[in-house]
Amino acid sequence: MQKQKERATFKPRQMAVVGLLSGISILLSLTPFGYIPILPINPTIMHVPVIIGAIIDGPLTGGLIGGIFGLSSMIRAFMAPTPTNFIFWNPVISIGVRILIGIVTGYVYRALKNRNSGVAVSAVVGSLTNTIGVLGLAYVFYLSRYAAALGISEAAATTFILTVVGTNGVPEAIISALIAVPVVAAYRKIKK
């Protein structure tokens, strides 16, 4: 008797998680609710539903939510253009990086699952995946165009990108962990 290969299928609960967290992600990406204005920085929390989905349901769910979030950010970049959001017209940046948030977060959480800090560390790593992925690929693909859009030299644009990693990326990572830990804990209590 041959063993049948199991196919990855989504259960109704997983579909509900994807739908709910994707809806929240779209809402955050299309409204000002996705930003936390802390002068002089403006960290985003738009990627947090992707992180939460990856932690509670794994890398496949996280990647799917990330893809939906990425698609919504790409659409927004076309619908409400700014001088620098041409970066998000590139699906590798807008969609690919966001899928990676879910995949990376999901696998990091699996590796750290039995540790108390697993949720927090996974959230930080997921958030930094977004920051480093978007800004790193912006640097690789669009440094000259980005510098021109800002009216600065390429050297100044490089410094600016690195500064944003520190001023926005680190607070975003901390905020992501501060949100993900209690949300995942509440989900676990409800799930029991």
Written description of the protein model:
It contains six helices and no strands. The chain is mostly helical and 192 residues long. The protein has a single domain, classed as Arp2/3 complex 21 kDa subunit ARPC3, CATH 1.10.1760.20. Helix 1 (12-30) packs antiparallel against helix 2 and helix 5 runs antiparallel to helix 6. The longest helix is centred in the C-terminal third of the chain and has 38 residues, at 154-191.
* Secondary-structure arrangement, i.e. CATH architecture: Orthogonal Bundle
Q: Point out poorly predicted stretches.
A: none
Q: What is the total number of structural domains?
A: 1
Instruction: Specify the number of helices.
Output: 6
Strand percent estimate = under 5%
- Just give the CATH class: Mainly Alpha
Distance between the termini: 37 Å
Secondary-structure content class = mainly alpha
By DSSP, the count of extended strands is: 0
Can you tell me the CATH topology? Arp2/3 complex 21 kDa subunit ARPC3
Fraction of residues in H or I helices: over 70%
Largest sheet: none
Shape: globular
- Any idea what the radius of gyration is? 17 Å
Order of helices and strands: HHHHHH
Return the average pLDDT rounded to an integer. Answer: 91
